[in-house]
Amino acid sequence: MIDTHAHLQDEKMLPCDVVIENANKAGVNKIICSSSDIETSKKAVLIANNYECVYATVGVHPEEANTFNETSLKELEKLAEDKKVVAIGEIGLDYHYEFATRETQKSVFIKQINLANKLGLPIVIHTRDASGDTMEILRANLDKLKNGVCIHCFNMSLEILKEIMGYGFYISIGGIVTFNNAKNVLDIVKACDINRLMLETDSPYISPVPFRGGINEPKNVVYSAKKMAELREMLFEDFDKITTDNAMRFFNIKD
Ligand code: NI
């Protein structure tokens, strides 16, 4: 099983040794460490080089869009030369907090789409309260998205789900699927193309039930996976195999 989205470098996380041992014991044998800015991108690459089972994405999150400057693209490009870097992310739009203006967020998002295209890497998208503009940018850049797109913690409409499945995009879903009030996410899990679905935790955030409110860890991906297998009326083993294969394919991981 693969946790495709965890912030192992986050200060709230337990030490990596512990977190990775816990994950491996729970059957989670690969973790994609996600980044939010240049600092966390550097840390993600370091961790990925220290642990065979960890891979990294590098990128500037929309909440950090104001930190993006002239040198950011060069730094990301340099970091992406590392063979453990498997995607550019997380990038996108967040109009919930709007820490940076919408114009800044859009510009930083598009610059990183271009970078990923240049480097031949897929992108991992964060989008919150910004469906309209996110989709507008993706539709306008489809020719630059051939290396793959994953919308993480996907919670947009079923209509958009249908559209992006048509583009061959992937989604990843985490702990929210275990919450009682998650009707939209339950519908998404049932309606999505099973070959485009990946598992994530977004650790240290969004702990699944029964750990809701606690600090999340990659090992907990098993709880959302069980819930999703149930929703799809699939054997857990089959669901695990398909979603693992999806992640290997999306991130172009060979072994
Ligand atoms: Ni994240």
What does this protein look like?
There is one protein chain. With 255 residues, this protein is of the alpha/beta class. It has a single domain (2-250), classed as TIM Barrel (Alpha-Beta Barrel). The chain is built from 9 helices and 8 strands. It has helices spanning 16-25, 38-50, 72-79, 102-119, 131-140, 158-167, 183-191, 221-231, 236-250, and strands at 2-6, 30-33, 54-58, 85-94, 123-128, 149-152, 170-173, 197-199. The chain has an 8-stranded parallel β-sheet. The longest helix is centred in the middle third of the chain and has 18 residues, at 102-119. The model has no long low-confidence stretch (mean pLDDT 97). Nickel (II) ion binds at residues 5, 7, 34, 90, 202.
CATH level-3 fold name: TIM Barrel
Order of helices and strands: EHEHEHEHEHEHEHEHH
The mean pLDDT is 97
The count of domains is 1
What separation lies between the terminal Cα atoms?
13 Å
The structural class is alpha/beta
| Rg over CA atoms | 17 Å
Low-confidence stretches: none
Q: Main β-sheet, in a few words?
A: 8 strands, parallel
CATH class: Alpha Beta
- How much strand? 15-25%
Shape: globular
CATH architecture: Alpha-Beta Barrel
